[in-house]
Design brief:
This protein is α/β, with parallel strands linked by helices. The chain has one domain (27-171). The chain is built from 7 helices and 7 strands. It has helices at 2-5, 11-26, 29-44, 70-78, 124-135, 149-158, 168-171, and strands at 51-56, 62-68, 83-90, 98-105, 111-119, 142-145, 163-166. The protein has a 7-stranded mixed β-sheet, with helices on both faces. The longest helix has 16 residues, at 11-26. The model has no long low-confidence stretch (mean pLDDT 77). It comes from Dipteronia dyeriana. This is MULE transposase domain-containing protein. InterPro entries: MULE_transposase_dom. Residues 83-171 form the MULE transposase domain.
């Protein structure tokens, strides 16, 4: 700001200005969490069989969310090999958290999304909750993950008969 516009701006003020603009453009992320039940309801209405779940804590604060769209399950049941890859992605936004995804590959070797789960952090409890929700759907021949302790514990508890493998990248 000083070099381009000749304005002396302290870091703290620049950060607050950036946050204000982000709230103006994208809205407050905490308000977005409050709108999730309405969004999930609207998502389920035109998509029969779609399942969404939200888990809250004793203080009625968001803990986990789960989305599986029926079209993804139908495609998985009829077209996709029953090999599911599960991994977590740490979100770097203002709210942070974790996005857990379950994906497969279709006949063209393209990534096929199956379901999503998001939570405030990655732990065995939230991962077990996700895998239990996933268990209500198709049969699984093999599950592949990065062998995070929470994912491994959840998969072994919920899918004891499925083969559990590790990503070659993590093995290396």
């Amino acid at each position: 700001m000083r070099e381009q516009h000749g304005i002396h701006l302290l870091y703290n003020k620049a950060y607050r200005s950036k946050e204000h603009i982000l709230n103006q453009v994208f809205g407050d992320p905490w308000e977005s969490f409050q709108r999730l039940p309405a969004y999930f309801y609207v998502l389920e209405q035109p998509n029969p069989g779609t399942m969404t779940k939200i888990k809250i804590d004793l203080k009625i604060q968001f803990k986990y969310g789960f989305i599986v769209i029926e079209a993804s399950i139908e495609g998985f049941n009829y077209v996709i090999k029953h090999i599911i890859c599960i991994d977590a992605i740490h979100l770097k936004a203002r709210t942070s958290g974790v996005l857990l995804v379950a994906v497969c590959k279709d006949g063209n070797e393209m990534i096929y999304p199956l379901t999503f789960r998001f939570a405030n952090f990655e732990c065995t409890e939230s991962l077990t909750w996700f895998v239990k929700k996933l268990h209500k759907y198709p049969d699984h021949e093999m599950l592949v993950s990065d062998r995070h302790n929470g994912i491994s514990n959840a998969m072994e508890a919920i899918f004891p008969n499925a083969a559990h493998e590790i990503y070659a990248y993590h093995l290396a």
